[in-house]
């Protein structure tokens, strides 16, 4: 049936005609008195449901954002430290097109890793470091710079800087050095090592055997491993002079040489990412590009000489949360 069809028996009217039998419409009568009623909107409230939902979502988003910002501020001790830091949930370090790839991590973080050459009366050492401020603060291992009379640092772009020791903490095998006349450097993003889990993929960047900017990858093999290292000022330098290696103790046995008379034990992240002499002080990084640890020691089979020790897939890193907690004291000149 079409729109204009009608049942038989119905009269036809023109477009402007009405049935003469219909009663006339009632005349409009204005209110007798009083002001006109205010418009309060449509009587139905169905359309207000989505509006309320949108407002609720916005409030929740604002609350989440506020909580995240507060957490980051608490984590870093405020913005005055000059450290670029984030939680492990941050994902903007690596470009979106390379997110989750070793290539992406290497491209994003390599500019924040340096090679360190330290010289002393006992010999010389080559290690690595992590830039934590744009003006040249670098975190490394204490055993890399212990007793050093001269420190030279080379950045990813090939520039060389002289550096001085700001503070050391032999009990945590950490040191902070400062590059002279440096500016515009790319500071690393410090993550949250408490969020690290066994099986997480990781990348290590450093200068093993003086091979600057070497990238290796693996997984987190274990957490909270007790690693004992020497706190003797010249012990690390003497080991490097004899051919490299990190003197440390694990599981009650000493590896890569004598740990010396004074030792310290810390809880370490264990990784199977390849680490070799020269990786000391370099970065262990999650797949979002956040630093989760400072590489510090490696395992070598019993009987292996320091000069021939190499990676067997058992490396250890100082958790980055330990580093962040220690930074204020290092900046204040602790141990130096």
TrEMBL record:
<feature type="transmembrane region" description="Helical">
    <location>
        <begin position="53"/>
        <end position="72"/>
    </location>
</feature>
<dbReference type="InterPro" id="IPR051201">
    <property type="entry name" value="Chloro_Bact_Ser_Proteases"/>
</dbReference>
<dbReference type="Pfam" id="PF13365">
    <property type="entry name" value="Trypsin_2"/>
</dbReference>
<keyword id="KW-0812">Transmembrane</keyword>
<dbReference type="InterPro" id="IPR009003">
    <property type="entry name" value="Peptidase_S1_PA"/>
</dbReference>
<keyword id="KW-0645">Protease</keyword>
<keyword id="KW-0378">Hydrolase</keyword>
<feature type="region of interest" description="Disordered">
    <location>
        <begin position="1"/>
        <end position="46"/>
    </location>
</feature>
<feature type="compositionally biased region" description="Pro residues">
    <location>
        <begin position="21"/>
        <end position="34"/>
    </location>
</feature>
<dbReference type="InterPro" id="IPR043504">
    <property type="entry name" value="Peptidase_S1_PA_chymotrypsin"/>
</dbReference>
<dbReference type="InterPro" id="IPR001940">
    <property type="entry name" value="Peptidase_S1C"/>
</dbReference>
<protein>
    <submittedName>
        <fullName>Trypsin-like peptidase domain-containing protein</fullName>
    </submittedName>
</protein>
<comment type="similarity">
    <text>Belongs to the peptidase S1C family.</text>
</comment>
<keyword id="KW-0472">Membrane</keyword>
<keyword id="KW-1133">Transmembrane helix</keyword>
């Amino acid at each position: 049936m079409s729109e204009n069809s009608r049942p038989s028996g119905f009269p036809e009217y023109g477009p402007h005609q009405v049935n003469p039998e219909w009663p006339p419409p009632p005349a409009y009568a204005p209110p007798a008195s009083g002001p006109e009623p205010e418009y309060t909107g449509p009587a139905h409230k169905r359309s207000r449901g989505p509006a309320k939902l949108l407002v609720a979502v916005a409030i929740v988003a604002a609350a989440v954002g506020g909580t995240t910002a507060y957490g980051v501020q608490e984590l870093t001790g405020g913005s005055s430290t000059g450290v670029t830091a984030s939680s492990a949930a941050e994902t903007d370090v690596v470009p979106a097109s390379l997110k989750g790839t070793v290539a992406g991590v290497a491209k994003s973080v390599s500019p924040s890793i340096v090679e360190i050459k330290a010289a002393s009366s006992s010999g010389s050492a080559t290690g690595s470091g992590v830039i934590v401020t744009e003006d040249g603060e670098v975190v490394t291992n204490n055993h890399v710079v212990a007793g050093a009379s001269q420190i030279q640092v080379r950045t990813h772009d090939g520039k060389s800087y002289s550096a001085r020791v700001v503070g050391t903490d032999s009990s945590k095998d950490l040191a902070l050095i400062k590059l002279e006349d440096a500016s515009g450097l790319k500071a690393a993003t410090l993550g949250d090592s408490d969020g690290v889990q066994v099986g997480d993929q990781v990348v290590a960047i450093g200068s093993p055997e003086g091979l600057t900017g070497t990238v290796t990858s693996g997984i987190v093999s274990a957490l909270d491993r007790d690693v004992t290292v020497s706190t003797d000022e010249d012990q690390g330098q003497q080991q490097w002079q004899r051919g490299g290696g990190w003197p440390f103790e694990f599981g009650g046995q000493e590896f890569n040489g004598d740990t010396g008379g004074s030792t310290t034990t810390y809880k370490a992240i264990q990784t199977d990412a390849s680490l070799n002499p020269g990786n000391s002080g370099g970065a262990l990084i999650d797949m979002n590009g956040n630093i989760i640890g400072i590489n510090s020691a490696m395992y070598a089979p019993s009987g292996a000489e320091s000069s021939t020790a190499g990676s067997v897939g058992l490396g250890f890193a100082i958790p980055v949360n330990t580093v962040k907690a220690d930074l204020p004291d290092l900046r204040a000149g602790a141990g130096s």
